[in-house]
Amino acid sequence: MNNRILGNTDRSISPVGLGCMGLSHAFGTPLEKAEAAKKIQAAYDMGYTFFDTAECYTGTNPDGSTAYNEEAVGMGIKPFRDKIVLATKCGVRFDENQMLLDSSPETIRRSVEGSLKRLQTDYIDLYYQHRVDPKVEPETVAETMAQLKKEGKIRAWGISCVEEDYLRRAHAVCPVSAVQNVYSVIDRETEKLFPVLEELGVTLVAFTPLAKGFLSGRYQERPQFDHPEDNRSGQFQFSEEGFRYYQQALDLIRSTAEEKGATMAQVCLAWMIRKKPWIVPIPGTRSPERMKENLASADVALTAEEIAKIDEALNQMGLKDAASKRISKPEIIR
Questions:
Q1: 32 within a domain of the structure (yes/no)
Q2: Which parts of the sequence belong to the NADP-dependent oxidoreductase domain (predicted)?
Q3: What is the distance of C-alpha 75 from the center of its chain?
Q4: Within its chain, how far is the Cα of 271 from the centroid?
Q5: Crossing angle for the helix pair 105-119 and 69-77, nearest 10 degrees?
Q6: Less crowded by CB within 10 Å, the N or C end of the chain?
Q7: How far apart are CA 122 and CA 152, in angstroms?
Q8: Which CATH number fits the domain that encloses residue 318?
């Protein structure tokens, strides 16, 4: 398993990171904090060295209290803090389920202090602007991040869900190390950014690389996600129409997995890992077995020719522009 270098830094990270969101946000009842911390420690023991969380990843505990994902992550990484790369995010908050954007310098500064406290650390390896705020120019955000780097509070910064113009303008002020965008076999819009990411030396951190578990092949028919804080119920791919729409893609992944002696999830992750040396997927799971399976995808051998063959088959299915179909209700932040 070959590690990767994070953007323009000298930091080495595992080729698959752990998206920690689902431990306490958007996937049902949050795990108890100590239990979530044990999951993170188990991931580290397997070989994970890249952990992703966010200020706004919260859930409601059974007693009505708020579960802060950063607190669980901070507890989990404490024994090996200096041996891993920790990413968190700012610029998003919720008010009665409405997503509010605020990337003003004042808010970013308040947010970084809160995150440092919850994470029990004195620095953040990778600090993302979680969503582009149309009220704040990219140069202003980049200048704030540059100041935080000089103060030692963050070591690198990134942007989530970004387009080329914004990225270039921000990068010109303070080099961006990572972009975190949706990317998967059935959601390939981010490929239009590949030339600029390669040019600028920016790592692509792929979130929802398994389309929230849909691409694992575990679901053979429309599942029921009954918990009010489980946002998978609002995803197009889990609808009856979605299963029909993506059936050819699932069949392609399944047949490739059988040829490779791998799982469907491993093929989906290997497809992007092998495509570019600067792509790092961050699938999320609560299951140690799935963590191990996902990390082992880095050892699945897909040649450039095999990847091109998969891409051509996907192109023939017309899925490249399917991103707009995937959300059927207001977004719960990812």
A1: yes
A2: 16-314
A3: 20
A4: 16
A5: 50
A6: N
A7: 8
A8: 3.20.20.100
User: For the segment 3-34, what is each residue's pLDDT rounded down to a tens digit?
Assistant: 999 999 999 999 999 999 989 876 678 899 99
Q: Distance of CA 303 to CAs 229, 266, 283, Å?
A: 40, 14, 22
Structural domain boundaries enclosing 270:
4-325
Q: Please, are residues 64 and 108 in contact by the beta-carbon 8 Å criterion?
A: no
Catalytic (active site) residue 57: yes
For residues 213 and 218, what is the distance between their CA atoms, to the nearest angstrom? 8
Q: Cα-Cα-Cα-Cα dihedral of 323, 324, 327, 333, to 10°? A: 70
Q: Which pLDDT score, from 0 to 100, does residue 220 have?
A: 65
- Say if 99 falls within a structural domain: yes
Residues 6 or more apart in contact with residue 309 via CB below 8 angstroms? none
Report the sign of the C-alpha dihedral through residues 109, 57, 214, 3, in that order: positive
pLDDT at 200 over 80: yes
Residue that wins the pLDDT comparison between 239 and 163: 163
Tens digit of each residue's pLDDT (9 = 90 or more) over 222-277 = 555 555 555 555 666 666 777 778 889 999 999 999 999 999 999 999 999 999 99
Q: Report yes or no on 240 lying in a domain.
A: yes
Q: Which of 13-27, 109-123, 247-261, 304-318 has the highest mean pLDDT?
A: 109-123
Output the CA–CA distances (angstroms, integers) from residue 38 to 13, 41, 58, 268, in the order listed.
20, 5, 18, 27
- Inside any domain, residue 133: yes
Total domains present in the chain: 1
